[in-house]
Automatic annotation (TrEMBL):
Protein name, per record: Sorbitol-6-phosphate 2-dehydrogenase
Keywords: Oxidoreductase
Enzyme class label: oxidoreductase
Keyword Oxidoreductase included in the entry's annotation: yes
InterPro entries named in the record: NAD(P)-bd_dom_sf (IPR036291), Sc_DH/Rdtase_CS (IPR020904), SDR_fam (IPR002347)
Domain of life: Bacteria
Family under the similarity heading: Belongs to the short-chain dehydrogenases/reductases (SDR) family.
Pfam family, one: adh_short
One term of GO molecular function: sorbitol-6-phosphate 2-dehydrogenase activity
Entry EC number(s): 1.1.1.140
Length: 257
């Protein structure tokens, strides 16, 4: 119960890693608002978590939606201690054939959406003189990704934005960090989308894609939701009270910078 009495928003929380992070925060005693493009799924995930969790629709690329998201959390919980900026998409493709509209969509959700949701949280946290923001970034924010230029660009930008937000918000007592996960091979995104995308763009079978990505990890396996959630919770506690502007790798040793 390391986050007892705290309140949080998790974006992109209706399924997958976002839902797992919301569940872990709630298990640690935190009141949680789950925000997602799918209101139906957000409400269902919140009901499954219980413990006073709230679900709502919010598009992180919309300032109006993000302001409403923060206002809803404050109305329900009395304050906003934590924002987990998890919402994101991935569209892969060879750079010579990649549709610029798909590029713009990835940048809009992953980078602009991070800024817009963080901005809404920062306005509230600045008034409180306290708060913690954690962006879910990626190992692709540290090293370019094969046939994945838009995603890597958005995540590199996310680390720069994290550092800039940390500098801007430090005088207000607000910390801003990000977590850079390795490949969540058994997670929803990989199972529902990435294995098929990468098999097509890399000319491999799905089994070969899994073997390729596992072979790149010194610890020999993909990341799990629990691996990521443990580090996120740590960053939200007072144990990380002297950490801001950091991008922590959780990659099984695949990325060490």
């Amino acid at each position: 119960m390391r986050l007892e009495g705290k309140s949080a928003i998790v974006t992109g929380a209706a399924q997958g890693l976002g839902e797992a992070l919301a569940q872990r925060l709630a298990d640690e005693g935190c009141s949680v608002l789950l925000a997602d493009m799918s209101e139906e799924k957000a409400l269902a995930a919140a009901e499954k978590i219980g413990k006073g969790a709230i679900g709502m629709r919010a598009d992180v690329t919309s300032p109006t939606d993000c302001d409403a998201m923060v206002a809803r959390a404050v109305a329900a919980f009395g304050k906003l201690d934590i924002l987990i900026a998890n919402a994101g998409i991935l569209i892969a493709g060879d750079v010579c054939e990649f549709d610029p509209e798909k590029w713009r969509k990835v940048i809009d959700v992953n980078l602009n959406g991070y800024f817009i949701s963080a901005q809404a949280a920062c306005k509230q946290m600045a008034q409180q003189k306290s708060g913690c923001i954690v962006q879910i970034n990626s190992k692709s924010g540290k090293k370019g990704s094969f046939r994945n230029s838009a995603y890597a660009a958005s995540k590199f930008g996310g680390i720069g934005l994290t550092q800039s937000l940390a500098l801007d918000m430090a005088p207000h007592g607000v910390r801003v960090n990000c977590v850079c996960p390795g490949n969540l091979l058994d997670g929803t995104l990989w199972q529902d989308s990435l294995f098929a995308q990468y098999a097509q763009t890399q000319g491999l079978t799905i089994e070969q894609v899994r073997a390729k990505y596992e072979s790149q990890v010194p610890l020999g396996r993909g990341a799990t939701y629990n691996d990521i959630a443990g580090v996120v919770v740590f960053l939200c506690t007072d144990d990380a009270g002297y950490m801001t502007g950091q991008a922590l790798n959780v990659t099984g040793g695949q990325e060490m910078r």
